[in-house]
Amino acid sequence: MSNRIRWGVLGAARIAITKVIPGMRGCERAEIAAIASRDLVKAERAASALGIPKAYGSYEELLADPEIEAIYNPLPNHLHVPWSIKAAEAGKHVLCEKPISMSSAECRHLIAARDRAGVKIGEAFMVAVHPQWIRAREIVRSGRIGPLRSILGCFSYHNADPGNIRNIPEYGGGGVMDIGCYPIFISRWIYGEEPVRVRAAVERDPVMKTDRLASVLLEFPSGHSVFTCGTQLAPFQRMIFLGSKGRLEMEIPFNAPPDRPSRIFIDDGSDLFGGGIVTEEFPVCDQYGLQGDAFSRAIQEGSEVPVPLEQALKNMEAIETILGG
To answer: What is the pLDDT of residue 2?
Structure first.
């Protein structure tokens, strides 16, 4: 497709350099046309390594480029809303990393800015476009496992470095903001409902003050979701969906690899040793590339982005409740 949406990237964050930009290089509807950093040498180095035509030494220069139509914002959490608003005011569409904001009030400011500017802004929950998740929601809603009653989840890694941005409260660090946002989003997305009650047990690191262990219960009209997230645990991730007749399990729910097939397991419950399990495998794909194309399609066709700000706001409200905001 010759009329691809021209994207600019704010900053040289690790997720941008190692995952999103490489994924979007295979897009049909999108192309990364520029990258900006407050350090021009860093921007030029990233542009050279990733085949990006333009490099800027400031975010303002990127936003002033009339050829750039959309912005990908992978900046630290506390800069999500300020720079997304600046991008919107510059007439750019914005795909912003999760979590969208530092608070629900801040997210509402972003919604107002979007509406004033008449642009599209969405939260970068790439899982919403991955075939394994689209299929999982289809299976649940088909009734194959019976009415969905319970979701069980875990997402963890180990990072105790006080200098790491994920461990700095002022920058929006902590496990719930960083990774707990995923099972919250997925639970809401699969149920197709909003939680009516949110409860949590949260443990904070005594030195860094960020939440390092959280166990959460989301009560929905149709059932429950229970998950644990931790930043000082063994790395692990899994999501399990329990219905009245069967079970659905996602092998690698969030960091689905771009270089090997993904698998989900559907269990009819007939055999505790796994005799009733059917495995579905999905061809190799890159969820970041799929996300870039889906967002670009929304721009071109005037349709809704995969995860609009109204959905981001609901996720943020749940996060606030968990963290006692």
So the answer is: 56
Say if residues 286 and 23 touch (Cβ distance below 8 Å): yes
> Does residue 26 sit in the same domain as residue 113?
yes
Give the SS3 label for residue 43.
Answer: helix
CB-based contact 110:85 (threshold 8 Å): yes
CA atoms 272, 273, 275, 280: torsion sign? positive
Tell me how far apart the alpha carbons of residues 217 and 286 are, in angstroms, rounded to a whole number: 31
Sheet holding 262-267, edge to edge: 197-204, 211-219, 224-230, 148-158, 232-243, 247-250, 262-267, 277-282
In terms of Cβ atoms closer than 10 Å to its own Cβ (0-12, 13-18, 19+), residue 221 is exposed
Per-residue pLDDT for 325 more than 70?
no
pTM greater than 0.85: yes
Question: What interhelical angle do 104-117 and 309-323 show, nearest 10?
Answer: 170
pLDDT at 259: 95
CATH number of domain containing 52:
3.40.50.720
